[in-house]
Structures are given as C-alpha cells and as structure tokens.
Amino acid sequence: MPGSVNADLEFIQRIRTRHSMLSGATQRIADYLLESDLDQIKDINVNSLAKITGTSASTVTRFCRILGYEGFSEFKFYINKEILSGYSKTEKLKKGDSASEVKQKVAELIVQSISMTELKIDNDQLEKAITAIQNAETVLFLGMGASSGIAETAAGMMLCSGINSFSSSDPLTQLRKLAYLKKGDVVVGLNSQGKSRDIYDVFAMAKKKGIICISIATFSDSPLVSVADIFLETAIKEEKFMQLSMAMICQLFVIECLQIGLVMGNSENSKEKIQEMLQYTSMKYLK
Fold first, then answer.
1. Is 271 in the same domain as 134?
2. Chunked mean pLDDT (size 10), the chain, 287 residues
C-alpha cells in the first residue's frame, strides 16, 4: 500500500518508471521506499536501508544505479532536497486552447517525454550500445514508416562521428545490406511499438551471423526487444494524437546520446576520418 511520499517527487517517479525492471532484492528496496513516509527515509543510510530490506549495501548501490543515479549519495540528495519531477504536472491539450497555450503545452510535452526517456534508458545498456557501435566496422540503421527518416538521420549523425553507417527502410534492401555485415557489426532497429515484422526478420538473421542487434523502442515486452542484444527504452506522454511525433523526438534523443557518447570516446583513427569527411563536405558550401 502506498505511503505518504509525494508521488510527484523525482526519485519516486524514477522508481515507478523502472519498477518493472526490478526483481528480488532490488524490488524489495523499491517497495519499501514506495510504502514509507518521506521523513522515515530522509535520514536513512545505505547500511540501514540494506538491513531493513534484507539486502546488502552493494545491492542498494546497484538499485540506485538502476534508477540512473551515480550511487546512494546522489539518490539521498534527491530525497533530502525533495526535488520534484520535471514531468509530474502536465496540462492536457484541449479544444479552444489559444495558439500561445498550444505552444506552451506542446513544448512541455516534448520536454517531459524526453525526461521520461532519460529515466527509462538503462545506463549499462547505453554504455554497451556506445561500445558496440564504437567497435563495429559498419552500423546499419533500420526504420519503418515514420522512423525511416530517423534511421536516415541517425546514419548521417554516425558518419559525422567517424562511424561507417548507412540506413534502410525497404525490407528487401535491408536484407541485402545485411549480407555485407559481419560478426561484430551492429544493426539498430528503430520502431516505437517494437512489433515490426521486417526489422524482426533482420534481427533474427543478424544474430545468426554474430551481429549485435540494438532495439530502440517504447515497450520492453515487444517482439523486437525479445531478440535484441541491447534495449534502449523510450517513453511518450499519453497524448494519442501526438504519440507518433513524440516517439520520433525521443528516438532522436537516444541517437543523440549515442553520438555524444561516441564523440567523447573517439579514437585517433575516428578523428582522422571526421577531419577527412569535413574536408570533403566543405567543398559543397558556397563561399
């Protein structure tokens, strides 16, 4: 039964968002925090929380990292400062809203969807995705429907980061391009629902070749996620007529996280490729 902790607090939102990822010991920690009064947990330390929940200090630290915190100290900072979630209060769009109100609400929905996605993405999975792309000779981005444009943009962004990459939205071309990939290369599937038959088929064949499959999707129990090696979860606010555009925005956010992660860890070889690419593309701009 829920306790009296403000449901809009940032750490509570994180626990609820990640609750389905937890099991056993980490779930006991989550349930205890959700059922406790704020005053009850403000002064708690890592060892006492471990003792109360029948876990260990290392499990408590792991729990904090699953939530996206660096460790218990950062987790306690959010508790003690009673920091509110950035997406806890959303005014629904409604008929009769002025242009100014529409602009403000749409902006809030975008910010909140990105905030929710930031909470949902598992840090370890993100690190694995960055490392896999960094080590791959070739990366293939797959997108169907609205996500096809995101896949093309993603491939362009990776090229700008020194990664040999390309995209495809045609089912037959996807399979043909797969023939040129080898073990250690990467296939990234962009599909909000995670139910694309075409991308699923490519993933199934790619795994047989030792190619790493990354799924960027909203639903953790979807078919694509079940066959992927790495899952980067996105989130969308419950405005049904905006779900498509929100899904695309959140996919771009994930791609941007991957790109920046790659740039921060760029090898000298990648830097040389980037410089050479910039030299070539500079010729396409008028003086």
1. yes
2. 59 82 89 87 90 94 85 83 56 81 83 81 92 95 92 93 92 94 96 91 96 92 92 74 82 95 74 77 79
